[in-house]
Design a protein that fits this description.
GO cellular component, one term: Smc5-Smc6 complex
Keywords: DNA damage, DNA recombination, DNA repair, Metal-binding, Nucleus, Transferase, Ubl conjugation pathway, Zinc, Zinc-finger
Structural class: mainly alpha
Distance between the termini: 113 Å
Largest sheet: 3 strands, antiparallel
CATH superfamily of one domain: Winged helix-like DNA-binding domain superfamily/Winged helix DNA-binding domain
Mean pLDDT: 76
Number of strands: 8
Subunit structure: Component of the Smc5-Smc6 complex.
Strand order of the largest sheet: 1-3-2
GO biological process, one term: double-strand break repair via homologous recombination
Catalytic activity: S-ubiquitinyl-[E2 ubiquitin-conjugating enzyme]-L-cysteine + [acceptor protein]-L-lysine = [E2 ubiquitin-conjugating enzyme]-L-cysteine + N(6)-ubiquitinyl-[acceptor protein]-L-lysine
Helix content: 40-55%
Strand content: 5-15%
Low-confidence stretches: 234-263, 276-288, 312-349
CATH class of one domain: Mainly Alpha
Order of helices and strands: HEHHEEHEHHEEHHEEHHHHHH
CATH architecture of one domain: Orthogonal Bundle
Oligomer: single chain
CATH topology of one domain: Arc Repressor Mutant, subunit A
Length: 349
């Protein structure tokens, strides 16, 4: 069908996308072809597409994020060698760095690495760490192979968990699995009951809690299990953060303790200074011009007081004096080096 062909072309152009983006493409294709759009038909639509793609060893999968309330649509090559799926994204040396990163993340107790740990994995002979961060790391996050949990901390992305599943399970057979969905749990929640080693994905626990109500029993020991604070920030866990960076602050290879807090305070102060700089400033006269004007005005005031004390007004001035009055004021301003406020009390004999 034309509808299937249009959608497949879009999914091949962008193999990794959020489910709402895939639904938007499906809706546009339906409207363009004059067909009714019903979101509930989308899963069945993908099932029909996968039947057509099966002979090509391709499939489109809907996958849930393990921690966040986000779902994705992925176009997967079922036949390709695991790491060769990255060949269109990275060079062979870069794929080697990615392999090392994945292994380090999976071996980490927290299931994630700091940005410094990530950048220190890059051999100096390959490229500079700054170039790797701007290009390779950004691309890996944007395409779903890696993702940020919080600013400057990285874990494996949903695309790695799905497309490189065999590579992960064969290389790390002892990884914990979620008791609910039985998939590998990298960033996990553990039951705190002694002697109970049950682990869960956050999203799986939250889905169970919605069904169970206030009391959430562990599926293994049946004791209440608490859901701790999310390790993901409110702005991560999506492909778009990945692509944007990431407002990620550039990692420093040598950073003293407490440097992150100091840098955040400096950033706030710099933002305040920028706001102040943007406020309009009244145009001021040059300092020399202001001084000259002040002296001229003071000299004119002194001359006026002298005439008043002598009982004279401007009509008593000679025409030549009246004509050149302005010049006299300026000349007087130049002759007087300093005019103090004490001149106001001057007495003339």
């Amino acid at each position: 069908m034309d509808l299937q062909r249009v959608y497949i072309q879009s999914q091949m152009y962008k193999p990794f996308m959020r489910e709402e983006e895939a639904l938007a493409i499906y809706e546009q294709a339906c409207l363009a072809l004059g067909m009714p759009y019903r979101p509930d038909d989308f899963p069945g639509f993908l099932t029909n597409i996968n039947q057509a793609l099966d002979q090509l060893n391709l499939s489109i999968r809907q996958e849930k994020h393990h921690s966040r309330d986000i779902s994705y649509c992925l176009l997967i090559n079922e036949e390709a060698d695991e790491l060769s799926k990255l060949a269109t994204t990275l060079t062979p040396p870069q794929i080697g760095v990615f392999r090392t990163l994945v292994n380090k993340i999976l071996d980490s107790p927290q299931g994630q690495l700091t940005s410094m740990d990530v950048l220190n994995t890059v051999p100096s002979t390959l490229m500079t760490k700054a170039v790797f961060e701007k290009t390779v790391l950004h691309k890996l996050v944007a395409e779903g192979w890696l993702e940020e949990t919080t600013r400057g901390n990285y874990t494996v992305g949903i695309r790695t968990l799905v497309e490189l599943k065999k590579f992960i399970e064969e290389g790390h057979p002892d990884l914990d699995r979620c008791l609910h969905c039985e998939n590998v749990a990298i960033i996990k929640i553990e039951c705190q009951t002694p002697d109970c080693n049950a682990t869960y994905h956050r999203r799986c626990l939250e889905e169970r809690k919605n069904r169970a109500g206030a009391r959430l029993p562990c599926g293994k020991c049946q004791q209440p299990i608490m859901i701790p604070a999310d390790v993901y920030s409110s702005t991560t866990g999506s492909s778009s953060r990945s692509s944007q960076t990431s407002g990620t602050k550039r990692a420093r290879l040598e950073k003293p303790a407490g440097a992150d807090e100091e840098e955040e305070e400096e950033d706030e102060l710099m933002e305040e200074d920028d706001d102040k700089d943007e406020e309009p400033v009244a145009k001021q006269e040059p300092l020399t011009q202001r001084r000259t004007s002040t002296r001229a005005a003071a000299a004119a005031g002194t001359a006026s007081r002298q005439r008043m004390s002598m009982g004279m007004d401007e009509d008593d001035l000679e025409p030549s004096q009246n004509k050149n009055k302005g010049k006299g004021k300026r000349a007087g301003g130049r002759r007087k080096a300093v005019v103090d406020d004490d001149d106001d009390d001057m007495d003339l004999d």
